[in-house]
Amino acid sequence: MKNDIDNFVRWVKSNHLEATVSTNIDDINMMTHLDLSKKKIRELPESIHILKNLSVLKLSNNRLSKLPESIGNLKNLKNLQCENNLLDEIPSSIGNLTKLMILNLNGNRLKELPEELYNLTNLTRLTLAANKINSLSEGLKKLTKLLYLSLDTNELEELPDAFASMKSLYYLDISFNHLNFLPESISAIEELETLLLEGNELKNLPSLESHDMLMKLDLSDNSLKSLDFNISKIEDLKILILDNNLLKKLPDEICKLKNLTNLSVSSNSLICLPEKIGTLQKLEELDVEDNNIKNLPKSIEELKNLKNLYIMNNLGIKKPENLELKFCDMN
To answer: Over 70: is that where the pLDDT of 211 sits?
Structure first.
């Protein structure tokens, strides 16, 4: 044990971290929080395991290419932040951190995850964005306590059908991958409030009607020709983004979304908007740029809360005369 402490102290001094990390033995034994973010650290010593009472470890924005296997001995760790490093793998010992609730691995070079990671069944927040992950295993279904899951900007071509067990998940970001379909189990996430699917290759969607708590849905930059579900069932929806798809019309059911504040459908192939769009009384922003619309429906003048209207690059649309807009772009 003394050798490990000596090793850790030498590491602290060699990295000039004395102002951040105490080298006093009593302090080391009692340490619960350690923030080593932005310290230009290239490696952690195996002797990190002596910090047995550590509950929060922040290592973000360094130059770490790996984590020591001994990190799995930090059995009291609840929050591990490793964002923006150079990690290309995670040690299997991470599966020993069974008290871990927050794990941030955004902005690394990970291509895969160790199966042991799915043993972290107390995780409530898992962020894996901006890596090179190309697959996830069925073990994902064991993370039943997840509230927040970010998988955006990876290389996923498919997802495991593992979401039915995530009853409390309220935030799911799978944007900027290579998905051309979604597993049906996404329809079973009962508490979902934000679903971000931008920048994939989706042509069809599972039914999203059961997501009656959903407030933000981003389907932009896909290959959708229609919305093949009754969107009016998502009664709490506030933000709907459908930009850059292949839509030729919007379903009339959109006009039943009484809580909608933002509707964006730019860069599609729309030739008109639903006639009853004026029923969207809470709508504050409407973007229909880059379509083939000749006329706006008369009912648009009933949108008294509309502040911003984007209509450029259509077929001669005119600004509605009876709306007091803060902004309206024109050709």
So the answer is: yes
**Average pLDDT estimate for 276-287:** 98
Res 329: pLDDT: 87
Long-range contacts, stretch 265-274, CB < 8 angstroms, 24+ apart:
265/291, 266/290, 266/291, 266/310, 267/243, 267/291, 268/242, 268/243, 268/244, 272/297, 273/297, 273/300, 274/250
pTM over 0.85: yes
Q: In degrees rounded to 5, what are phi and psi of residue 53?
A: -100, 5
Residues 6+ apart with CB under 8 A from 19: none
Q: Which residues contact 2 (CB under 8 A, 6 or more apart)?
A: none
Q: Which residues contact 296 (CB under 8 A, 6 or more apart)?
A: 273, 311, 317, 318, 320
Query: At 212, phi and psi to the nearest 5?
Result: -75, -5
Structure-derived torsion over alpha carbons of residues 238, 242, 243, 244, reported in degrees to the nearest 10: 170
Rounded to 5 degrees, φ, ψ at 120 are: -85, 70
- How sure is the predictor about 81, in pLDDT bands with cuts at 50, 70 and 90? very high
pLDDT of residue 25: 86
pLDDT band at 103 (very low <50, low <70, confident <90, very high): very high
Distance (Å, whole) CA 242 – CA 262: 11
